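Entry for the shared binder. Reason: the reviewer on the internal report wants the predicted structure included alongside the sequence.
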Amino acid sequence: MKKIETALPGVYVIEPQVFGDARGYFMETWSTRNFEELGLHYDFVQDNQSYSAQKGILRGIHFQKDPWSQAKLVRVNRGAVMDVAVDLRKGSPTYKKWVAVELSAENKRMLMIPRGFGHGFKTLTDDVEFIYKVDNLYNRECDRGIRFDDPEIGVDWGEVRQELLSAKDTSSPLLRDSDCNFVWQE
């Protein structure tokens, strides 16, 4: 596996080693040993999967507030997405900054997103299977979102079709009006 830094410290693109031949391929998508060798120490406790039928579906920006915050290792099993991580840690040198990475079944890349970050994605193809591991269990009371189009964050999603947004995503507050409780610690 290869760890590639992004513009946000702690957010990494992970490229797995892929072994292939005429029959297909094999790759490890998670190995405690390999991640620890890369300096990434996570104890994942839950796997999640979502399916998006159409190109242009936008999901996010989602997070769970403390004490139920989650680190995520995300990847695409079918199709392609523009995956976005946003630093939501007050006081961080990269507070409100974001990074976007294309994840696809073809490039097999993964994105490692630590706690304190919001997460969202927009489908670039029809028929998208999105898979992610999290290091904390789901907690309904701490499940949160902020507006995908928050002007203080300014994620460039490209064209957004309102009919492809969920009620949760269209009713989420702006970051300044949210109860997001992440604080940066050196």
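Summary line for the report: The chain has a mean pLDDT of 97.
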